[in-house]
Each structure stands twice: as structure tokens, then as C-alpha cells.
Fold this protein.
Amino acid sequence: MCETGSVREEGKIRIFLVDDHEVVRRGVRDLLASEPDLEVVGEAGTAADALARIPAARPDVAVLDIRLPDRSGVEVCREIRARDESVRCMMLTSFADDEALFDAIIAGASGYVMKDIRGDELLSAVRDVAAGRSLLDQVATARVLERLRGQTTPKADERLAGLTEQERRILLLIGEGLTNRAIGERLHLAEKTIKNYVSSLLSKLGMERRSQAAAYVARMQATQTPKR
């Protein structure tokens, strides 16, 4: 495993790779390492190894396979974001799945790309995620928002019903991993206004941190999704 610990080269985007297929990891690593502004600071083949190594590696971006042998990449994403919101996550998968996309958005992933993506597109995607931009298209985001609006079954938490439409929208964007500034840009509102909305919705949910809100939505979604 290549890990550089706490050494940080100025100006480089630090990336941690998580995929249980060594050949895939090597291919992605070699592609990223060929770029002067990108640096692979670690890699893992399991969720447990990833969660153990990532804190010391201090990546800017974690590239995560959806399917891992011990846990899902979505769970790893959720735990990474709960520990350190500065680490942005991009899901890399072989399977197009609306449920996995929904889970990834709620877990705080900034991107969701297929493994058959072209090399130059993957490089652009990593740079976009590192810069704080979301790769999630508006149609997918709208579907998730619609599901959040529709949480009306008896299992739904009454706290969600106490949120305004705008607060629900902002809750979703927090789940995407967006900062207050990025949410403001998305909704065409001042950053200070977003900060006030976030404080309000956290208070209504009885929470103190953004990561708690993201985890709350993930749990809510898990209870509402029918078993297959």
C-alpha cells in the first residue's frame, strides 16, 4: 500500500482509493499518479482497512467502490463524512442502481460515476469533487427530494414534518456534502441565510452537527425502503 502519512505536497489533490479488485486499483492509481496535480496517498481493498488508514493519509478525496467484501462503499462514505466533513467522497461502481445512487447522495457523496468512464472524464471528476462541486445531476437530486417530501408513513419521524420545504431542501443538500456557501450558490441565497436555515433545521431535529443530520436521513431512508 502506498501511503504518505502526514506529508502534504502543496497544491496537490490527495486521493485515497478503495476497491477490492487489485487490478482496478492499480489502473486507477496509475492514471491518477500520471497527473502532476494529483497524488494517491493510500489504498485499501476492504472497508475496515479504508476506515483504519484514511485518518492518517488525510486525503482530499476518497474514491470508493460501492461493493466491498465486508461493508458497502456507501457505509464507508457515511462514516468518513461523519468523522471528517473535509474529506469528499466519489463512488465508483460497475452497476447503475437508483437505490445505490439515493443511498450515496444521503451518505454525503459528491459524485457517483461508472467504472466504464473514460480516463480523462475520471480525472475531471476527481478534480471537480476536490473543488467542492457535485457530480450528481439535478434529475437524480430531484428524485431524492421527492422521496424526502413523501415520508408520510407511520414510521416517518415527526421531526421531519416540522421542517419547512426550504429546510428539507437544505437537509438534502447537506446530505450531498455541500458547504453552506455551495448550498447558497445552488439555491441563490446568501451564505448567512443558509447558515440560519441550517441552525434552524438542526434545532428542530434536536441535533448539533451537520453529520448527525446526514446520518439521520440515512437511517430514515433505510426504514422507509421496502425490503427486496
Notes: The longest helix spans residues 191-205.
